[in-house]
Description:
The chain is of the alpha+beta class. About 30% of the residues lie in helices and about 15% in strands. It has one domain (about 25-505): B-lactam Antibiotic, Isopenicillin N Synthase, Chain (Jelly Rolls). A hairpin with a 6-residue loop joins strand 3 and strand 4 (about 170-175). Helix 4 crosses helix 13 (about 320-330), helix 7 packs antiparallel against helix 8 and helix 15 (about 435-450) packs parallel to helix 17. The termini are far apart. Bound molecules: fe (ii) ion. Fe (ii) ion binds next to loops.
Amino acid sequence: MLRVSRVAAPPLLAVSGVGSGAARTYAQLTRSSSGEKHTRWVPKTETTIAEVFENLTAEGPPLPPRFADLKREMCVDKDAMLHAWRGVLKELEGATEEIALRGNEMVMQVPYEDIQRGLSEEQLRTLKKTGVIIVKSGVPKEEALGWLQSIKDYVAANPGKVKGAPRDKIVFYELYNSKAQIAARTHPALITTQKYLLSLWHTSLPDTPVSVRTPLSYFDRLRIRGPGPSGVTLAPHIDGGGIERWEDPAYRSVWKRILEGGDAWRQYDPFDISPRLDANEEMYKSPNPGCSILRPWQGWTAMSHTGPGEGTLRVLPMLPLATAYVILRPFFSLRPELAGGFNDAADIPLDADAWVLDLDSSAFPGSTPGKTQAITPVTHPHLRIDKTIVSLPRVEPGDQVYWHTDVIHAVETEHNGTEDSSVLYIPAVPLTERNAAYVRDQRDNFLRGLPSPDFPGGEGESQFVGRAGVGDITSADGRSLLGFEPFEYSSYVNEGERKVVASANEILGF
Ligand SMILES: [Fe+2]
């Protein structure tokens, strides 16, 4: 019986770096380190990214019966739930067919000028439907190529010290604090783009303590991938935990309209940030913990040309509809007489009549405690991922890619091109109290050259030659993004934003 198959994929990793830095700023920050209102992140043990990837496809044991209880608790109206499921399946027929036909044309590409001007209504509709965007040409090509060279020089200057995965031929570098990374994170085109994309989110509850117009920096790793198979596969998955989507009451509230049943799922808004602030995306101890803060847009910035077949990102360009399906999926199973015995996932019946509401099974397909949510042709057959997960169109050095936190994504196994495929992982992260507390700890680690709090510990780049310092942050916006300058009060738009700006400045010691 193919119904419950689990293939986990890894959370994205990050870490931070070092600093030499302005003495005044360092002293100020040292003084501010006491009396903070948010608990500090506990340093992680010194594992490596290699160990993380080795753990990707581990399949967990069947979930205990309490997960069937959880389903019964969530399903308050069986008829309404069935109506929602049938409506979603019907909608998926056309949506998956559209992607199968159009391929990666579905991935919206816009010039940076469109971001500066603000996207058109039509562009916004597309983005909110697909959840993925490529912003082209904001960073000059030569500048992005310069970042790549600078990183290669940094690696060469520190022989024998650089870690990554796979160990024998590194693709994912455990570097977080190179000068190039700091330059990219604080580049005006990235800051402007992130401000804009974050501003597409909104609050639905009064006084939600968040500023979606204020980006913060989250130190993540980088990829320099040469031609050939990588030895590392990122199978289709969704970041932000797995079973927590249903098990954690706060996280579950994000999907309230979907779980209501009936046609309410059509009103589900993926850009409402209010219910996400308290979501617990990591209820279980994980060997490869994910991003511990609120990260509405995951993203990377290219340092090379990369096209389909060259080891690039693959996405399912479908946002609210795919989410509705993933959330409803655990409540349904194939009719017992149809289940099992399939040699190929493509043989699994997709017709709505073949599926029934099943509140007796404890299965949550693709959800394994301690893992990210996996999506396979078996666990989620109606998404037809063999045809609908598309490789990004060709990007140029300096292009930025962002995908909504709920978008299903993967990385190509093969790189059949001739050049390195290189990106810097740089997401868009808004100002919240927790995010500010993370940046406080990340800032402290950066000054000491240690990995950022979410990432494997150890001495990181503390003994590296040529790592970045505070002096490498060359703009006020950049200093604010990294927690080295207070956030401005002057432009807040509501009480929630005013409160979070005040709290963040206090947390950061200003
Ligand atoms: Fe991911």
